[in-house]
User: Fold Glucokinase from Cellulomonas rhizosphaerae.
Amino acid sequence: MHAIGVDIGGTKIAAGVVDDDGQILAQTRRETEPDDAASIDRAIADVYAELSADHKISAIGLAAAGFVAADRSGVLFAPNIAWRDYPLRDNVAALIDDKVTIVVENDANAAGWAEFRFGAAQDVDDMLTLTVGTGLGGAIVTNGELLRGAWGVASEIGHMRVVPGGHYCGCGHEGCWEQYTSGSALVRDAQAAAITAPERAARILELAGGSAEKIAGPHVTKAAVEGDPLAVELLAELGRWLGEGAASATALLDPALIVVGGGVAAAGDLLLVPARKAFSEQLSGRGHRPEATFVVAAMGNDAGMVGAADLARL
Amino acid sequence: MHAIGVDIGGTKIAAGVVDDDGQILAQTRRETEPDDAASIDRAIADVYAELSADHKISAIGLAAAGFVAADRSGVLFAPNIAWRDYPLRDNVAALIDDKVTIVVENDANAAGWAEFRFGAAQDVDDMLTLTVGTGLGGAIVTNGELLRGAWGVASEIGHMRVVPGGHYCGCGHEGCWEQYTSGSALVRDAQAAAITAPERAARILELAGGSAEKIAGPHVTKAAVEGDPLAVELLAELGRWLGEGAASATALLDPALIVVGGGVAAAGDLLLVPARKAFSEQLSGRGHRPEATFVVAAMGNDAGMVGAADLARL
Amino acid sequence: MHAIGVDIGGTKIAAGVVDDDGQILAQTRRETEPDDAASIDRAIADVYAELSADHKISAIGLAAAGFVAADRSGVLFAPNIAWRDYPLRDNVAALIDDKVTIVVENDANAAGWAEFRFGAAQDVDDMLTLTVGTGLGGAIVTNGELLRGAWGVASEIGHMRVVPGGHYCGCGHEGCWEQYTSGSALVRDAQAAAITAPERAARILELAGGSAEKIAGPHVTKAAVEGDPLAVELLAELGRWLGEGAASATALLDPALIVVGGGVAAAGDLLLVPARKAFSEQLSGRGHRPEATFVVAAMGNDAGMVGAADLARL
Amino acid sequence: MHAIGVDIGGTKIAAGVVDDDGQILAQTRRETEPDDAASIDRAIADVYAELSADHKISAIGLAAAGFVAADRSGVLFAPNIAWRDYPLRDNVAALIDDKVTIVVENDANAAGWAEFRFGAAQDVDDMLTLTVGTGLGGAIVTNGELLRGAWGVASEIGHMRVVPGGHYCGCGHEGCWEQYTSGSALVRDAQAAAITAPERAARILELAGGSAEKIAGPHVTKAAVEGDPLAVELLAELGRWLGEGAASATALLDPALIVVGGGVAAAGDLLLVPARKAFSEQLSGRGHRPEATFVVAAMGNDAGMVGAADLARL
Assistant:
C-alpha cells in the first residue's frame, strides 16, 4: 500500500509517495511560513492533492520537529514552528475530502524508523538512532517497536544530561548531551580553539573566510578530511562524547546497533572511530556482554519522509 | 495458572507458588553457597519438589542478580555468584523430571515487573522502577512490555554516567548513577560529613555506636525521621540525584510513573519530595508535556519472586 | 605625598588626586575611544595637566583592564581596548614635561589594593578580593604585598576552572569560575529559568519589561530584595559557587579575609550568606584551622583610582 | 651558618646538618612512634645532641606533615601523627640546653623551598612546587618569599576542587585535585582498568604479582617505561590532570616555573609531556603571556630536611 510521507521543516515541506518497500515513487515540495501554522495545513493538503492524483494513497504520515501527542493527532510543542497543542491531524483532515489515515510522528522517530525498516538497521530488533545535526535527535526501537513513551515524547535523547553544570542548552538546562555532540557544539568548539590556539585554527578559519563567527560544521569536516590536526581533534572530541553518551544510553536500552545520522555523520570514521573507542571504554559490563555496533545512517535526507509514511501505514 | 518464583540471593534462595493475581500461595527457602553454582541448581530443584507436591506448577521463574542471556536460558555474568555464561535453565531442568517451563530473569527486572503487574504501576503502560538498595537497579516497561534489550542486559540504569570523572564505581568506571543514588552512597556521604562536620554528625554517629566505619543506611534514615538536620540533608541530596538522574532517563523513556523501591525508599518523603523537585527542575520540555509521577514501590521483598513467576508464565 | 590615580575604562577615564590616606582631593574625567589607544594616552596627559595645576603630584598610577607587564610599564593584552604589547607608561611620559613616576597596574589589583590599604581589609595581611561584576576579577595580598606573579598576570582568578566541560567562556575555555560567579552568569541563569519555569520568573521578567533578553543583573537583585523566591534562589546559587570557588582558592592562599566587590555584591547577604555556608562546607581541613571571613568591599567605584595612585607611590 | 633540618615522618625522623649552600654535612635517623608525640620530641632532642657534638648549630628546622601554626611554633593538626594544637617548638626546646632557634615548617613547603634555594627553581622568583606522592602537596614561592598565608596553612593545593561531585577524598570532600593527580589516583585508575579492560592490564597485573589489589605506582611506571600502552595512557591521564590543575593554579599565581616532585615524578616525560600539553591548552590568556616551564624536582628525598634547615636560618 502506498502512503505519503511529509517532512515538515521550518520554511518548507517535502512530501513523497512511499511504497511498502520504502521506495519513493514521486516527490514534491512547498514553501511554508513557520509563524503561520495554517499555511502548513494548507500546504500539506495541497501536496496530497498533487500526489494523490497519480497514486492511490491509504495514509499520510507527517514528520514534525516537536513534541508529538501520544495519540499521534498533533503537536504539543514545537521549538521552531508556531504549534502549541496544535491539532495538526484534524486540521489537515478537514482540508481533504478523501478518507485517508493521517498520523503525526516526531521527525527523529520517523527518520529512525526508516533506518530500522529499510536502512542501516534492517537486521536488528533493538536499535538506537542518533541524529547529529544542529542538535542531537534520537529514535529508539526495542523488540521491533518504536519506543514512544507514555505521552509520545520519548527519545528526546539530546537532553540527557552528561555534565552537571555543563554548557547552557536552549531548553533552559545545563549539560545536555546535544551541547557536546552536535553541529552546534562542533562550531562552538572550533570558535573557542580560534581564540586559544589561533595558529592551529588557521585552516578552519581560512575555509570560513577568515572569520570565527562564520565557522560552520562543514568547514571543520572538510579541514579534517584534508588532515588538519585541529579539525581531526575537534571531531574526535565530538566522537568521544558521542560514544560516552551512547554508553550511558546503552546501560538503559542495550541496543544491538547504534545508527549515526545527521549532517555531522558525513565525517564518517573521523567521528565514528573515536566514538567506538569511547563507547567501549565506557560500556558497563564490557567483556561480559555483546557490544553494539556503530554504523552510519543509510537513508539520507529522505529518512523522515519515508519513515513517516511507513509509520502511517501500520 | 500457578508458577513458582525463585529469588536467588548470594547465600539463600526464597521460592514461592504465585497465582495469576500475584498472590503467594506457599513459600519456602534454602541456604546456598555462592561459590558453588551447582548447589544453587540443586536447591532450586529441591524447592520445586517441595512446592510442587501440593500445587500444580506450569512454570518456574528464576530471578538472578546478573546479566541474563537474551533467550532467558542462563546468566552471562554475576557479580556475587560464581556464574559465567552459566546455563542455569538447562542445569535445573536436568534435575527435574516434570515438564515445566523454566526461565531466568534479571532480579531487578522481575521486581519491576511485579510492580507493573500487581503493585504500584498497575494502571500505566510505561514505567520505570528504580531500586535504591546497596546499588541502584532498574526495570523499564514500555507499552506494556518489559524492555530487555538486544542481549537481555537493558535497564542497567545504575551505570548511566551522571558525573564525568565522578566517584569510582565497582564496575571500573567513574561517575555511575548508583554512586550518587544508593545506600552505599548515603553511607559514604554520611562518613564524609563525619569528617568535615563532626558536630553535625553527632546523632548519626551515636546511632552507629560512635564509629564512622559502622554507619549504615538505616542510621541515616532513622536520624532523618527524628528530624536530625544533617540526616535530612543527606537524604535530600540523595533525592536530588535520584530526581536528576530520573530526568535524564525520562528524556529517553518518557514513563508515566517512576516507582522507587529498595531499602532506601523506606525514607519515604524525605527522599521523594526532593526527588520530585529535582526531577521537575531538570525535566526537559517541562510545561509542554505531562510529567511522570514518583511513587514508592508496593510489593516489598517478595517483588522479585512474584515478578519472576509471572514472567515465566508469559 | 599626592599621587594621581587613573581608572581607564573602555569609553572614559576617571582620574583623581589621592593623598596618603586614600582620600580623593580632586577628580576629573575624559571620554576616550577604545579603538584609538593614542587618544587614551593624550587624555591621561590632559587630566594630569588639569589636576597637577592645583596639586603637587609625585606619581601617576594607571589602572588598566588587561594583562599588565611585570615591570608595570605597559599592557600585554586587553580584551576591550586596542592594546597589544602597548608601552603605555612611556607613551604617556612622552606627553608630560614634569618628572613624575608613572606605573601601570591591573585594575582589579588596584581596586583590591585600595581595599587592603584603606577599605575593608585594612586590618589583615593576607586577603583575597573577588570583584563580581560582568566577569569575576581578583586581587591577592599575601604577607602585606600584592601578588603579581612572575609576569604580572597573577590573580586572573575568574579563569580558574571549576567545572570540566562546563560553560563556555569568552577566553576560549570551558568551566571558568566567572561563568558561574558573575553578573553575566546571573543573567543567563535567570534567562534559563524564564524558559524552564516561566511562572516562577514572572517578577524578574516584569522588571525586565517582559523580555527575557532584557534581563539584567539589577532586575534579579531587586526582585530578590523584594523576596521573590526565584531571584533569591538564583543569588543563592551564585553565592554557592562564590563560596565553593573561594574554598579552592583558599586551599592555595589561606587568606584571613575575602572581600566581595563589584556590582553583584550589592545583593549583600542574599549573596554572602549562601557564600559563607558553601565556603565552610567546602573548606579543606575545616575545624583544624581558622576560617577566612567574607565581607563586602568598602571602597565603591573609586577603588581602582585610589589603589592605582597608592601603588604608584610605593 | 649551619642549621639542622629534621624531616619528621610517621615512623622515623631523618636529620641532617645543612650549610649555607644547602649541602648536607652529616646525617642521622631515629625511629619514632606516631601515636606517641613525646617520643618524637625526644628523638629530635636526641639527634640534635648527636649532630651538635661535631657541628656548631644556630637553628633547627622541623619539617612536619600537617597544618603548621602561622608563628611556626607547632602543629595545628596532622593526619598521621597524634598532633592536635601541639607546641612542638617549645616541647623540643625544653629538652635542649643550648640556645638555638627552632621553627616548625610544613614538609611540602620545606621541600619546595629547597628546590627554590638550591634545586630546580634557583633562577626564578615565582614558582610552584607540586609533589606527586601518595597525595598531592604543594609549595608556592612568590616574589622570592614562601607563601604561608594568614594562618600558615596555604599551599594545600591538593585540595583545590577540580571536579564537582568527583572522587571522594580522605579530607571528607569530593573532587580534590589529589584524587586525580597522585600515586593513589594512579593505582586506583590501574585497578579500574583491570576490571574494564583486563587484557590491556595484563602487564601491570603481572608486575603486581597477578593481583589487582597489589598494584602500586611503581608497577605502572615500570610498565610505562617498557612501553605498555595502558600504563602509558594512565600516566598521560595523570599528566593531563596535573597540567589542567596547574593551569587553574597559574590563573591565581602566575609562576615562572612549575617543579614536579614526588615518587610519581620518576615517570619523567611520560608524565610531563602530557602535563605540558594540557597546561598549554587550558592556560587562560595563552598567547598573550609568557608560559611557565615544567621541570622535575632536583633535590630528591632530602628536600624537606634541607629546606627546613634553610628556613630556620632566615
In short: Chain A has a mean pLDDT of 96. Residues 124-297 of chain A form a domain with the Nucleotidyltransferase; domain 5 fold (CATH 3.30.420.40).
